[in-house]
Amino acid sequence: MNNLSKTDVAYHLLKERAEGLNFYEIWDFIKNDLSLSDDEADDLISSFYTDLSLDSRFITLGENVWDLRENNSFDKVHIDMNDIYANSDDDVIESEDGIITKEDTDEVLFEDDEPKATKENK
Fold first, then answer.
1. Domain range spanning residue 93?
2. Spatial CB neighbours of 13, under 8 Å, sequence gap ≥ 6
3. Is 64 within 8 Å of 52 (Cβ atoms)?
4. pLDDT in tens, 13-61
5. Strand 58-62 and strand 65-68: pairing?
6. Which of 18, 26, 27, 57 is most open to solvent, judged by the fewest CB atoms within 10 Å of its CB?
7. 73 and 14 in one domain?
């Protein structure tokens, strides 16, 4: 498999397996398959991780375990974006510098970090 890209080698490795593998197990296989020295492997590991993340054939199952998308049902790998963006817009104050999240306080802070408005004095 020496003439294949690193992601293609990972694809063939995972295709032969019934379950996903930890990233470092995949990387060790690729490192050995491509006969990479430790220095070469150190230089390439981060770009391989990026390539794996961007390649739509692969999915992460959490805990740094990777598998092929085709081996997993939609229900197993689907992420409900509503869970990620659970905070409503009512919990956010927009400022010129960016977005400030109101936590468990009724106080609104401005540039000079002094309270300018609270529920009590509105």
1. 82-117
2. 21, 26, 29, 30
3. no
4. 999 998 999 999 999 999 999 999 999 999 999 999 999 999 999 999 8
5. antiparallel
6. 18
7. yes
